[in-house]
Design brief:
The chain is an alpha+beta fold and 278 residues long. The chain is 46% helix and 9% strand.
Amino acid sequence: SSSSSASSKKEKPAQLEVAYWTIRGLGAPARMMVMAAGVPLKATCYDVVPKSAESGGGWDLAHYHAARPGLRAENALANLPYVRDGDVFVTQSNAVFMYLGRRLGMLGDGSERDVAACEMLLCECKDLRDNFTRTAYGKGDERLPCKQLLDGQKTGSSLWKLDSWLRQKPQGQSKLFFVGGELSAPDFHIWEMCDQYSIMAAKHGLVSPLDDLPCLRAFYAHFKALPQNQKYFASPLSKFPLNQKMAKLGGSHIDHGTWVRGTEYDFHPDSGVSGAIY
């Protein structure tokens, strides 16, 4: 009910911990949600480090793997992202987004209809992300595979469906939010993926799929300008690379292209970003 949603907003947690890699990825929507709600965010960030050429190259995940046994002793499912709220430990990305939605009053009016809408939209957005990362990690440095992915989004894939969702909202309801007339959990992940698809287009000199999707384009611009999102966009967290260093697109935080060995970005475990309170 609306009253239960309203009451949950009054009882905000004193602090929430969101843990993820030193990239935007699935961590960005959760970090954004907490900051938009005005709740102090403890950002725990695990880094992936390149192994030396002498050791055969590859990638060292020891920073997270050292912590994982302790995390899995607490929750056998522990993975990244996870959120810690006092003695509550939640993992798996959509479970994290839905938990934060309940905790922060970001599931529409809290009705069964609105909660189901949030769940459906988050599942659709996960499909959108999976298609993006498959290309970004595999062939993100090649123009043609990226063009094929972007073109497909204009005519029937997830971005097209999300634009259609906004168009189908009942008359009188804001088309600048996906559920109701204020921020809800799916808005954050949908915005993040709109941004990543736009970055892919710009990187290859291609037209953004949002240019053909007017409702989604308006949502994208409106979300970025909302006052409650400015703290996140001004933070180091928003400057993280899109993807891990091994990705063919988004591995570099400077130009969103391929990460170049030796150009370490300043988000490693000793940078002060990990564990900081925002």
